[in-house]
Amino acid sequence: MTNSENSPVLTFNGEKYDINTLPDKVKDLLKAAKVADNQIKIQEDNLKLITIARQTIAAQLQKELDSVDTIS
Fold this sequence. Notes:
Blueprint: H1 3-6, E1 9-12, E2 15-18, H2 24-65
Antiparallel strand pairs: 1-2
């Protein structure tokens, strides 16, 4: 195997690039894209937690309202 066969490869828009030979600006952009992806994942997880919390609050609200008289 040659060194290029062991190098990490970026596939972008159907083209393949040896990551080790990319300019620093491109590597920085790849890092920024990874950070953005990680932040999206964190926010998606937060949204899931907030959704569960809202469902729990709604269930507790319903339980409390079960003992309260309704109005017509």
